[in-house]
Amino acid sequence: MKLHLLAGLLVLLIAASPAPRFEPLQPALFNVSGGQPNCWGDYDNDGDLDLFVGFKADLPNRLYRNDDGRFVDVAGEAGVADLPDTRAAAWGDFDGDGDLDLHVGFTKRSNTPNRLYRNNGKGRPFTNVAHEAGVDISGVETRQAAWVDYDNDGDVDLFVALRDGPNRLFRNDAGRFTDVAKGLGVDDPRKTVGAVWFDYNQDGRLDVFVANQDGDRNGLWRNDGTRFVDVARELGLDGNAAARLGSNGPSVADFNNDGLLDLFVAGYGRNFLYRNEGGGRFTDVADAMGVAGGERATPSAWGDYDNDGRPDLYVSSYIDKPVNEKDYLYRNEGGRFVDVTPELLRAHGATHGVQWADFDRDGALDLALANNNSSGANSVLRNLLPPDEARRSLQVLVVDKRGHATRAGSEVRVYVAGTRTVVGARLVDSGSGYVSQSVVPVHVGLGAATRVDVEVTSFTAAGRRVTRVANVDPQRVKGRVLVVNVPSGAEAR
To answer: Which residues contact 193 (CB under 8 A, 6 or more apart)?
Structure first.
């Protein structure tokens, strides 16, 4: 009897929650198949987010410039309309000049060295400086790339996951890179297709979780400063080793609002949702939370689309034949996730890139999907959340003291003002969606909170450093984006 009552209550709660509503933006521009990685970043520093999409072979990559909510493809004039099969893309300011640069990675069969496009600013074309910088690797299957400061020296280093060879970690020394993966022990030879960096044990150094395919177990490489050590097996995070199965797109968010960052791993065979128990320990709760399903899950991305204060989860499944494995939009109901995928998304099919971002600056997260199936299409979908609900959010842009985006992996926590009640905890993007890295403000839905305290934890040579902004009224924040400058590297020695 009690079970029936609980089930009935759950149905009533779900029915009372508004269904997600999205509408396609500029379908004549975006309605093209072949997209794989996609990532947002304000490359022209005009205050709104632009979108890069990498495509399958013989389809030019696209750079969609955002002109106050309307987009135009400028990849050709920007010099980034590559034709080789593109499988990785990451925005990051590698030279610390305040302009976002772009790393682009290709497949082995393309026979094309990876490219590092330096942003020359002021609307000038990008310049490929990969060879001079020492990151023009070729003859490999590039997957997740990420700009992260693994050694806490203040500049961003470059991690590149490979599906067919040891992973690479390039240390940044004044814009010239040295591969230090082997010396640090993080040259994982397994078939890595996804990776995300976060400080899982809160020791002040970014660690990296790698998702591996074809029966290879997953890895969690703990950063001990002078060495990386794989602790996935001892922590129960190494996944499924069954032949031809494996994991794909990992992503990080605090799904239960306890202030601790949890880890979701999409995969072939099953998904994992690792709840962070504190002290560097995790428990897989995917079955209990209703997100273990999906036989061929590929990307995953967290975003609070309804601004209720609980991050929701987008997961897509992909397989060549039959076409159109199902996409899932899971609404976080607190004690469980519920599939609320609207019909518009059910028909999308074969999604690879999945990115949440508020491109029109109304406070509600919009959704960009990159689809490489011949019968599918790419999309930018505007979130039709009512204006009063869209405003129940705060976005936090984390930058260094110079105002530059070099602090990927930093943690943002929002509390009810004057309390330690967590409204939300998020990660500055360090690899997400599908082999992509965006540079976007961290978005937190506020639910019923009207004033909040914001704490940003960044990483310095002296360890974890918290920067606090108290008693914030989100409605008074210009553009709904709170800019927080944090120390980095030698600044904290």
So the answer is: 143, 144, 161, 163, 211, 212, 213, 246, 247, 248, 435
